[in-house]
């Protein structure tokens, strides 16, 4: 499998590759490839990409182009390359930051829901006060409060 990016492949006589074999492994640096078939249904590629064996070879040693890998397979290859080269800590840090952000967003959503519930409750109370004001023809809440205090003193 050719790993090197296209512009480097155009100018360099060599390229970076990883072998594709039928050796099975559960190591995270071995990426299985879904069987690839041509238009007639003939199998053209299958196996596992061994990202622990990245090497530089002369392009003269390469055969013809066969096929592309799927986006999911390429993501798995990228991750396996980072593990193989020991740069996975960067991706893990980014993944942790992303998880933290998702957790923070969830916390904000929960807080927003609680605040909205409280706001709705306060709005209901305010509506009830407004209903009292309208029913008894008071112009504002302070006049209603004064009236209630005065009424309690008279009892």
What does this structure look like?
The protein has 155 residues and is of the alpha+beta class. The protein has helices at 6-11, 71-84, 88-136, 141-154, and strands at residues 14-17, 20-21, 30-37, 43-50, 55-58. Strand 3 (30-37) and strand 4 form a beta hairpin. The mean pLDDT is 92.
Short description:
By secondary structure, the protein is an alpha+beta fold. The chain has 4 helices and 5 strands.
Low-confidence blocks of residues: none
- Quaternary organisation: single chain
User: Terminal Cα separation, in Å?
Assistant: 94 Å
CATH architecture of the largest domain: Roll
Radius of gyration: 34 Å
Give me the secondary-structure category. Answer: alpha+beta
What is the count of helical runs? 4
- Overall pLDDT: 92
Number of E-state strands: 5
Helix content: 40-55%
Within the largest sheet, what's the order of strands?
2-4-3
* Bulk shape: rod-shaped
Q: Which band does the percent of strand residues land in?
A: 15-25%
CATH fold category name of the largest domain = SH3 type barrels
CATH class of the largest domain: Mainly Beta
The major sheet is characterized as: 3 strands, antiparallel
Tally of structural domains: 2
**Strand/helix succession:** HEEEEEHHH
Write the layout of secondary structure elements.
Layout: H1 6-11, E1 14-17, E2 20-21, E3 30-37, E4 43-50, E5 55-58, H2 71-84, H3 88-136, H4 141-154
Antiparallel strand pairs: 1-5, 2-4, 3-4
Give a quick set of tags describing it.
155 residues; two-stranded antiparallel sheet; 5 strands
